[in-house]
Amino acid sequence: MTITKADIVERIYEKVGFSKKEAAEIVDSIFEVVKKSLEAGNKIKISGFGTFNIHDKSARRGRNPQTGETITIRGRRVLGFKASPILKNSMNREG
Asked: What is the pTM of this model?
């Protein structure tokens, strides 16, 4: 099952009692803060959930599998996530 942003809005609407419009604005605001922080290269730590961070990958040599030609793969930024021990434990409970 995949949970969408609309599902998150719906759950906030049901649990907290905000209107759907207010819940959508809250979710959008949170995602915007996370996005802007990551774009700026900041680490985001959500207690009990995990840490998001950005890694810079250097340029490297690669090979085109169709032609065998050596190419240079550009460096880029990659998003990483490390789950907190609390989240790991809740995912691995037996029951």
From this structure: 0.76
